[in-house]
Amino acid sequence: MSFYQSPKKMSAFDAKFEAQKIAFAPVSFQVARCLSQFGILTKIDGAGDEGISLIQLIQHVELSEYAIHVLLDMGLSMGIFWCKDDRYRLDKTGYFLLHDDMASKNLNFIHYVCYQGLFDLDDSLKQGKAIGLKHFGDWDTIYPGLSQLPEQTKKSWFEFDHYYSDHAFDSLLPLIFKSDPAHIIDVGGNTGKWAFACTRYNKNVNVTIMDLPGQLAVAMKNAQACLVADRVHPFETDLLDNNKPFYQGGDLYWMSQFLDCFSKQQIITILQRTVAAMKPDSELCILETYWDRQPHEAGAYCVNATSLYFTAIANGNSRMYHSKDMLKMINEAGLYVDEDIDNIGLGHTLLRCKLKPMN
Amino acid sequence: MSFYQSPKKMSAFDAKFEAQKIAFAPVSFQVARCLSQFGILTKIDGAGDEGISLIQLIQHVELSEYAIHVLLDMGLSMGIFWCKDDRYRLDKTGYFLLHDDMASKNLNFIHYVCYQGLFDLDDSLKQGKAIGLKHFGDWDTIYPGLSQLPEQTKKSWFEFDHYYSDHAFDSLLPLIFKSDPAHIIDVGGNTGKWAFACTRYNKNVNVTIMDLPGQLAVAMKNAQACLVADRVHPFETDLLDNNKPFYQGGDLYWMSQFLDCFSKQQIITILQRTVAAMKPDSELCILETYWDRQPHEAGAYCVNATSLYFTAIANGNSRMYHSKDMLKMINEAGLYVDEDIDNIGLGHTLLRCKLKPMN
Question: What was the ipTM of the complex prediction?
Answer without folding.
Answer: 0.95
